[in-house]
Amino acid sequence: MTKELLQDIADSQMVLIGIGKEMEESYQGMKEDTFYGPLLAQAEAEEDSAAIIQYLQCHYVRRHPDHRIKKAYETLTALLEGKNYFVLSLSEDDYIFNSGLDRERIVTPCGGFRKLQCTERCNAEQESLVTDDKVILQVLEEIDNCNGDLSSVDFPVCTDCCGILWFNRIETPGYREEGYLTQWEKYTKWLQGTLNHKLCILELGAGMEYPSVIRFPFEKVAFFNQKSVFYRVHGKLPFLTEELSERGFSIKTDAITFLSEEGNQG
Ligand SMILES: [Zn+2]
């Protein structure tokens, strides 16, 4: 991490963070794993395979969190301590909710593993999302104890159509955006309040996935706020537009490595 960034965060009144897919859990190694491999193969044969795979991924990420990603969030938490910040994240792995960051200052428009929903096939009127963590913890426990046989796991079902509930994630058919809208409103209000304030913008690993959520709007915010500085960190796509060259820093390092470099605690 650069000295300039630490100084700019210290000097700023507000800090806007964007987290992209580069910071996200990759689930690499699940297929080869002796526990998850056979379960994934069984899931593939099921009608609702994509939903069941979500549960297996949720189990994987909660039981075997990636230490580098965890560490990256610890660094970020330390970096933002005492600051007026907001984090907009495209990650769906929920590491951010298990970090020390303030949940009230986070919005995750792609969803994650904290809420369940039925799909677009369901006839039920906009039924509310299932947000009871106990339901999810129960499934995870059943997966722990399933002895390699998914048929012994009772996946939660919709009270209306009896189909398996999916996680409230962007790839779920009929994704229910109300899962993040309350936080989104807070975010847009907070963002409006950044104008004329010394703002430090830090974009971490946001490439061209959903560029209209982080990448393009952040450039615009930086462009219109003359008191802002903009750091774009990405392993492959760190490039900045010409207009931002004076107040912008382009760092060609993947976001997790960037946050785990030595000497980043300031
Ligand atoms: Zn349903």
Automatic annotation (TrEMBL):
InterPro entries the UniProt entry points to: DHS-like_NAD/FAD-binding_dom
UniProt superkingdom: Bacteria
Protein name: NAD-dependent protein deacetylase, SIR2 family
Native organism: Eisenbergiella tayi
Species classification: Bacteria, Bacillati, Bacillota, Clostridia, Lachnospirales
